Amino acid sequence: MVKKMFFKSLMTTLFAAAAVSFVGCSDDDEKGGGNPEINVSTTSLQFANTEGSEMVSITSNADWKVEIEYTDGEGWITVVPALGSGDGSITVSVPANDTGSTRKATLKCIAMHPVYGAWDTKKISVSQSATDTPPVEEKVLYADNFDGKLAEKTYGSGTSWPFIDQFPEFANPEGPAATDVTYTGQNASVRNGSGDSASQYSLYPGSGANNIFFGKVPAYFIVNGLQLTPEQSKLTLTFGTEYYDGNDKTAGFDKSKFHVLVSKNGQDNSWVELEYTFPATADLVGKWNLATADFTLTAVPEKLYIKFLAEAASVIRIDDVKLSTSEGGQSVTLPEGDPVVTPDEGTVASAIATADGQSATVNEATVVGTYNKGFLMQDATGKILVYTNETATVTIGEKVKVEGTVTTYGGFKQFAAIKDQASGEYGPAPVVTSLGSGSFSQPAPEVLDGAGMDAYLNAPAVKYIEYTGTLNISGNYYNVNVDGASKAVGSIAYPMEGQVNAALNGTVVTVRGYALGVSGNVYVNTMLVELAASTEPLLIVDPESLSFDAAGGEKTITATLMNSTEAITAESDNAQFTTAVSGNVVTVTAKANTGADAVTGVITVKAGALSKSVAVSQNGANSTTVTLTMSDYFTKNTNVADQSFTFGDFGFSFTKNNNSTSNYNAGDGGIRFYQNDVMTIDGNGKTMTSIKFTTYGGKNGPLAPDTGAFDAETLTWTGSAAKVAFTATAQIRFSAIEITYE
User: Peptide bond before 543: cis, by omega within 30 degrees of 0?
Assistant: First the structure.
């Protein structure tokens, strides 16, 4: 404003100097001189639903006019007079409101400069309710556009956006309720760049620049400690938000995946969910819109906490959060929740409560797990990881004292050396002092089946777990594929030397250890305590699907039965396919298919009460299947992103949409196809009906096709298309592709 007024004053002075020989006196001189100014006796008018009018006094040293901007409806306000000069008054009148809802508008009272036109403006908000009670005057209690300082992508390894607790400078709170406000979050980062709330993708006048991005789930952002006064019970919360799914660009905003809650103390069981709405004109597909939640507090707390909770990973952002007094809405009663307890100094709980980058001490705790990068310890108040970045020298049961810097990784607090973003140097590692050896009995584990593993991805916690699956060892990766898990994969993190017997590779094992969170939105990181070959009866079939050309023929299924002596049997649900069993080998014979259409069936392999299904398909007479082996088409370590290739009769192109670049790795003999990258397969005139991927290294993240369907268990796409684009939802490594086409 200072710059604007200085510019206008300078222009006025220059104009006056140039015109002095032509004009003896001016209107400005007659009205007191100086810049045109205007003031009004009120900044808001509220009317009931009946016809009414109010007078507003105007003080000005210039000619003035009144303009009306309608938020709701048109033409329902009359201003007399709409033009004037000097001091005066206007009468604002409204007819009866029979619309059934509150309507709003803004009066702009504008002082006019004789040369430059509109100069000084004062606004009056006008609202008329749909009842016999006038609307409550809106008063902004708190607002933040998060633009205190522009976020930079220099965190983590130097290429990441900062998390909430790493970058407090983003905060820019305003309003009487914001005196002591603070922010906390989990898996929520501060970002800026193209497509922000002020871009062409925004349907409200957003601030742009920084916004809050919700990454892997669960992710939340909390506004802590807004100060309210007893009369501030009727409130409106607004926030800009965008829902953009790069894997499904047609997906609209899914309100079931994004929750807004309020609390009087921020404790876990004290939150009440708010209902929020979007304007009728909202475009909820990849656009910024302004959401509104109107609510009435049955009892006004001294402080209010607001929580934004995302249950969808990496698709939601918010900006421009504002809390105002209003007519209220949804009735909200805030429960007490658990009492706020200040942890005793020197405990694990006090370390967890310590802000990132600050020092803490745990006076005595017991080591409950170890791995090749540190150890996990606990006392009566909780568990915390001590990340030393070297093989643990303590043993389970040992009592220790730990002093060091606290930081957050994967949503959990830990002791660790912190990297200085400017120098790239790490600070001191945690200091561990042994207080003597001891023993520790592990608790009963929480046993996770496939569904339980998937559920853990959405609610990670540090806890003792057990799961059973097939162990796949690839270099330094120890992954466990759990039967029934659609996405989650167990991952033994940095096992101690000798903990994992390489001879167990490819066999079914039971893992017991401490879950330490999630990586890559897929892997359940586990600090191993115990690894054992499973004693439960288990039947494994390989492969889990078969396909035949129209000519028919024979193929085999190998059935592996563990911890059982039952005989293996097999049966088919389609006479086109017959089975014969010899020991643990099932031979499937397909008759010739002379029809034009493909034929499908299911082979059921049994061993006592255990059974496995193998999907079988056979091409029609007009179909052909080819297998493309990646090592036949690539030279050593080829970067494939943003390039096109021809494999046999098919065209392939790879588009980079991530920080990593998909590539062909000679050592693996296959393609490393990274998350969010896109691979398009062009049939070059042929209609593809099936595409099956042969994967390796435990990296078999499901693919999202733009047409047809993808079976994550068999890694097979089915459909009918001349071209298919696959987006990697997680890293997948494949060495061959089998394509069936017509």
Answer: yes
Do 554 and 528 sit in the same domain of this protein? no
DSSP per residue over 574-635, as a string? STTEEEEEETTEEEEEE----SSS-EEEEEEEEETTEEEEEEEEE--TT-EEEEEEGGGT--
Quote the CA–CA distance of 625 and 550 in Å, as a whole number.
10
What distances in angstroms separate CA 389 from CA 273, 392, 416, one per listed residue?
41, 9, 8
Query: How far apart are alpha carbons 78 and 83 in whole angstroms?
Result: 13
If asked whether residues 562 and 522 sit together in one domain, one would say no
Q: How many domains does the chain have?
A: 6
State how far the Cα of 122 lies from the Cα of 132, in Å rounded to an integer: 28
What is the domain extent for residue 638?
624-741
- Considering 135, 154, 182, which residue would you say is the last residue of a domain? 135
Strand bridging mode 382-387 / 412-416: parallel
Strand partners, 423: none
Is 438 part of a structural domain of the chain? no
421 pLDDT band, cuts 50/70/90, is low
pLDDT tens digits, one per residue of 648-665: 889 988 887 755 677 877
* Tokens coding 240: 């800009």
Q: What are 690's two structure tokens? A: 């099936």
Residues 524, 409 within the same domain: no
Query: Which H, E and C letters describe 122-175, residue by residue?
Result: EEEEEEECCCCCCCCCCCEEEEECCCCCCCCCCECCCCECCEHHHCHHHCCEEC
355 to 220, 241, 351, 404: CA distances (angstroms): 17, 28, 9, 12
CA–CA separation, 396 and 373 (whole Å): 15
User: Chain centroid to CA 236: how far?
Assistant: 25
Q: Which of 87, 102, 135 is the last residue of a domain?
A: 135
What is the CB neighbour count within 10 angstroms for residue 3? 7
Same domain, yes or no: 304 and 364? no
Distance, first Cα to last Cα, the chain: 70
570 and 525 in a common domain: no
Dig out the tokens for 609 from the structure: 């009460």
Q: What does the pLDDT read at residue 368?
A: 98
Residue ranges of the alpha helices (H) in 509-550? none
Between CA 645 and CA 174 the distance in angstroms is 55
Centroid of chain to Cα 258:
10
- Backbone phi, then psi, for 419, in 5-degree steps? -85, 130
What SS3 state is found at 467?
A: strand
Tokens encoding 665: 């790795």
What is the rounded distance in angstroms from the CA atom of residue 587 to the CA atom of residue 658? 44
Going by the DSSP 8-state scheme, the letter that residue 202 receives in this structure is B
The answer to whether 605 and 559 are in contact (CB under 8 A) is: yes
Q: Kindly state whether residues 306 and 184 are assigned to the same domain.
A: yes
For residue 109, the domain's CATH number is 2.60.40.10
**Cis bond leading into 218, ω under 30°?**
yes
* 70 and 53 part of one domain: yes
Please check whether residue 8 lies inside any domain of the structure.
Answer: no
Q: What is the pLDDT of residues 229-268, one digit of tens each?
A: 999 999 999 999 999 987 778 889 999 999 999 999 988 7
Which one-letter DSSP state was computed for residue 566? P
249 in the same domain as 177: yes
Distance CA 256, CA 268 (A): 20
The string of pLDDT tens digits covering residues 268-324 is: 789 999 999 998 889 999 999 999 999 999 999 999 999 999 988 889 999 999 999
pLDDT digits (tens, 9 = 90+) for 333-374: 999 887 767 789 999 999 998 888 889 999 999 999 999 999
Distance CA 730, CA 305 (A): 35
